[in-house]
Amino acid sequence: MKSSKVLPENAIWNSLLAAWLCLGSLLLPSLASAAPRLSDTEAGRAVMVNYIIHFAHHIQWPIEAFNGTDAPFRVCLVGENQIREALWARLKHQSIDGRRASVETLAHGELRRARDCQVLLLLALPRADQLEIIGALQYFPVLTMSDSPRFAATGGMVEFVGSGAQVSLRLNKTMLERAELKTGTSLFRLTRHVP
After folding, report:
1. CATH number of the domain bearing residue 167
2. Which one of 10, 152, 174, 184 has the fewest CB atoms closer than 10 angstroms to its CB?
């Protein structure tokens, strides 16, 4: 005769709860990554472009950051490049620190080319790819920017937070100093610092 094991009611509920928690832990990261980012909308991209240009004019790069006196001021994109057109429309007739501006799209593996950029936007990249790029550039004078959550806390320099009219910036001053990028005081009024 087979004996059937009867589980107490609490054990059944505990098993169901454990299953739901396991399922929830699998779904939550994908839901969090699906949250809208500033770069997802045309209005958000316009706000980002304004801030990027503001930063470009208010940060001082060491002279070694440029490959010669006629080298352009390079704004580079890795990842989604929906912002490229809006950025180029604003920068194509501008000079930054007496240098013509250029906007370039880089592939993820082009870290050597990324070292020659003055601004590097990392948009819609997996976290591991972001961390790899940030780590490879941390001692180079390249201003890293993104609207990815926790970008500044994980080593990026400028993180766009929020959407629409409720945009703020998080600034990682430690990483800016490590890259020898000098910031004007006007930038600090726009941002929150990340410890």
Report:
1. 3.40.50
2. 10
